Amino acid sequence: MTRVAVVGAAGRMGKALIEACAQVEGLTLSVATEHPASSLIGADAGEVAGIGKNGVIIAPTLDEAANDFDVLIDFTRPEPCLLHLNWCVAKGKKMVIGTTGFDDAGKAAIAKAAQQIGVVFAPNMSVGVNLCLKLLDMAARVLGDSVDIEIVEAHHRHKVDAPSGTALRMGEVVANALGRDLKECAVYGREGVTGERERQTIGFATVRAGDVVGDHTVMFADIGERVEITHKASSRMTFAKGAVRAAAWLQDKNTGLFDMQDVLGLK
Ligand SMILES: NC(=O)C1=CN([C@@H]2O[C@H](COP(=O)(O)OP(=O)(O)OC[C@H]3O[C@@H](n4cnc5c(N)ncnc54)[C@H](O)[C@@H]3O)[C@@H](O)[C@H]2O)C=CC1
Ligand SMILES: O=C(O)C1=N[C@H](C(=O)O)C[C@H](O)C1
């Protein structure tokens, strides 16, 4: 039985993760935390998630819980996530990281920590998006440099980072397939007199509106035809179930940095 801790338990993903833990066999929620200033400290995590009491009380820190779980799942923000990462390294706990919006230093800290603990780090835990990453690699290799590549993503009004972690990963996959460096060729939004499109760029466009769970389209546009690969999430449970699956998969991995392609056997 894998014992799971969910940090950010009252967040949009935190609540979905608590529900997913209750649905997946071989796994149990044993610890839940929230920001120390949250009004939900002391509340029952199951009740907060809308699935009825589960007896796990939301705590303000992990400090009392070191013996109570095996894998930590973090869908919060980069700053608290890196604090949780340090805590997990100190206590020898494994970690599933779904949080997005890290800078290069944050990503390097995660890679370094994974030399001491097992970590699954992925901007999107859904099976469908991870299938799309495979399809994107194939599409880029077949269509090559003759097409213009644009990535469009849409999310709910509360999302704080842009472009989404998923859009950036899609860009990396396409750039790698074409032998380009995304840092050199990405264009993030356009305004004013931009001049004609530079052919080797990869463009990103961001929409923030209403309650969109998460839409991503990668467009490969030539003269006379275009290919579009689109994923639309309609429920956060698709991400939560992937994260919980990753937590169970990590059980026998003592060190190493993995992503959902590893978990799903897509490499
Ligand atoms: N990898 C994936 O499949 C997915 C990743 N995400 C990412 O997950 C992250 C969270 O997204 P949402 O749930 O929509 O955000 P949210 O804002 O609803 O939830 C974040 C929660 O973390 C809590 N938090 C902040 N500091 C904390 C601390 N020190 N200790 C404990 N809890 C703390 C907040 O109070 C909040 O409840 C974002 O970075 C988002 O991009 C979201 C969906 C899927
Ligand atoms: O913040 C979100 O909601 C989501 N974030 C992830 C991202 O940044 O790619 C994944 C998903 O699209 C939902």
Automatic annotation (TrEMBL):
<protein>
    <recommendedName>
        <fullName>4-hydroxy-tetrahydrodipicolinate reductase</fullName>
        <ecNumber>1.17.1.8</ecNumber>
    </recommendedName>
</protein>
<comment type="similarity">
    <text>Belongs to the DapB family.</text>
</comment>
<keyword id="KW-0220">Diaminopimelate biosynthesis</keyword>
<feature type="active site" description="Proton donor">
    <location>
        <position position="159"/>
    </location>
</feature>
<dbReference type="GO" id="GO:0005829">
    <property type="term" value="C:cytosol"/>
</dbReference>
<keyword id="KW-0457">Lysine biosynthesis</keyword>
<feature type="binding site">
    <location>
        <begin position="8"/>
        <end position="13"/>
    </location>
    <ligand>
        <name>NAD(+)</name>
    </ligand>
</feature>
<feature type="active site" description="Proton donor/acceptor">
    <location>
        <position position="155"/>
    </location>
</feature>
<comment type="function">
    <text>Catalyzes the conversion of 4-hydroxy-tetrahydrodipicolinate (HTPA) to tetrahydrodipicolinate.</text>
</comment>
<keyword id="KW-0560">Oxidoreductase</keyword>
<keyword id="KW-0521">NADP</keyword>
<feature type="binding site">
    <location>
        <begin position="122"/>
        <end position="125"/>
    </location>
    <ligand>
        <name>NAD(+)</name>
    </ligand>
</feature>
<dbReference type="InterPro" id="IPR000846">
    <property type="entry name" value="DapB_N"/>
</dbReference>
<feature type="binding site">
    <location>
        <position position="156"/>
    </location>
    <ligand>
        <name>(S)-2,3,4,5-tetrahydrodipicolinate</name>
    </ligand>
</feature>
<dbReference type="GO" id="GO:0019877">
    <property type="term" value="P:diaminopimelate biosynthetic process"/>
</dbReference>
<dbReference type="InterPro" id="IPR022663">
    <property type="entry name" value="DapB_C"/>
</dbReference>
<dbReference type="InterPro" id="IPR036291">
    <property type="entry name" value="NAD(P)-bd_dom_sf"/>
</dbReference>
<feature type="binding site">
    <location>
        <position position="44"/>
    </location>
    <ligand>
        <name>NAD(+)</name>
    </ligand>
</feature>
<dbReference type="Pfam" id="PF01113">
    <property type="entry name" value="DapB_N"/>
</dbReference>
<dbReference type="InterPro" id="IPR022664">
    <property type="entry name" value="DapB_N_CS"/>
</dbReference>
<dbReference type="InterPro" id="IPR023940">
    <property type="entry name" value="DHDPR_bac"/>
</dbReference>
<feature type="domain" description="Dihydrodipicolinate reductase N-terminal">
    <location>
        <begin position="3"/>
        <end position="125"/>
    </location>
</feature>
<comment type="pathway">
    <text>Amino-acid biosynthesis; L-lysine biosynthesis via DAP pathway; (S)-tetrahydrodipicolinate from L-aspartate: step 4/4.</text>
</comment>
<feature type="binding site">
    <location>
        <begin position="165"/>
        <end position="166"/>
    </location>
    <ligand>
        <name>(S)-2,3,4,5-tetrahydrodipicolinate</name>
    </ligand>
</feature>
<dbReference type="GO" id="GO:0050661">
    <property type="term" value="F:NADP binding"/>
</dbReference>
<dbReference type="GO" id="GO:0008839">
    <property type="term" value="F:4-hydroxy-tetrahydrodipicolinate reductase"/>
</dbReference>
<dbReference type="GO" id="GO:0009089">
    <property type="term" value="P:lysine biosynthetic process via diaminopimelate"/>
</dbReference>
<keyword id="KW-0963">Cytoplasm</keyword>
<comment type="subunit">
    <text>Homotetramer.</text>
</comment>
<dbReference type="Pfam" id="PF05173">
    <property type="entry name" value="DapB_C"/>
</dbReference>
<dbReference type="GO" id="GO:0016726">
    <property type="term" value="F:oxidoreductase activity, acting on CH or CH2 groups, NAD or NADP as acceptor"/>
</dbReference>
<keyword id="KW-0520">NAD</keyword>
<feature type="binding site">
    <location>
        <begin position="98"/>
        <end position="100"/>
    </location>
    <ligand>
        <name>NAD(+)</name>
    </ligand>
</feature>
<keyword id="KW-0028">Amino-acid biosynthesis</keyword>
<dbReference type="GO" id="GO:0051287">
    <property type="term" value="F:NAD binding"/>
</dbReference>
<feature type="domain" description="Dihydrodipicolinate reductase C-terminal">
    <location>
        <begin position="128"/>
        <end position="264"/>
    </location>
</feature>
